[in-house]
Amino acid sequence: MDKKIKILGISGSLRKESFHTKLLKAAMGMQFEDAEVGMADISQLPLYNQDWEANLPASVKELKDKITMSDAILFVTPEYNYSVSGVLKNAIDWASRPYGKSAWSGKPVAIMSGSVGMLGGSRAQYHLRQMMIFLDMHPLNKPEVMVPMIQDKFDESGNLTDEATRAKVKEMIEALVVWTKKLK
Ligand SMILES: Cc1cc2nc3c(=O)[nH]c(=O)nc-3n(C[C@H](O)[C@H](O)[C@H](O)COP(=O)(O)O)c2cc1C
What we know:
This protein has 5 helices and 6 strands. It has 184 residues and is an alpha/beta fold. It has one domain: 3-Layer(aba) Sandwich (Rossmann fold). Strands 1, 2, 3, 4, 5 and 6 form a 6-stranded parallel sheet that branches. The longest helix is centred in the C-terminal third of the chain and has 21 residues, at 163-183. The protein is globular, with a radius of gyration of 16 Å. It starts with a strand and ends with a helix. The model has no long low-confidence stretch (mean pLDDT 97). Bound molecules: flavin mononucleotide (FMN). Flavin mononucleotide (FMN) binds at residues 13, 15, 18-20, 78-82, 115-117.
């Protein structure tokens, strides 16, 4: 049997009750025949500082190693002021450095976003897609997962109970697996 495709999930919110982290955890809890979804902790990363590039902080090295060992990436981002959250951008910037030694290069990637409003974080998602160009990542085009009114999709224990959203998340992971195999 083939080795499972390792997908590394990164949530763009550090909030304990973050809806986006719950969305990522829902993906982690789903069963896939040939894939497993994990999660990187970006809460311990310092603010990006180029002075530290020659001797990367341990938390940055750890993140870069996790990315390198993964077959694909899954970003789950909220929208902050029409873009991605600062903590996610910080993680992206750290792992892209030093110049020429980015951990992101060539990685297949899928993006989920959400918001407590009607547009599902779409504006943040398009900013993130723009970043994928310079990072030389390979974003999955479809399905698009943009979850509007994300606060209504979970039960009190934080489980993703909205069936339509569950189906979309599952469809996205399955499509990411196909995409990843195609690129190998
Ligand atoms: C600094 C900040 C900026 C925000 N900007 C937007 C925005 O531009 N568009 C939007 O739909 N929601 C915006 N929101 C609301 C978020 O969608 C909401 O806080 C969401 O719950 C954040 O995700 P989380 O639950 O994973 O932390 C903003 C929230 C914060 C804290």
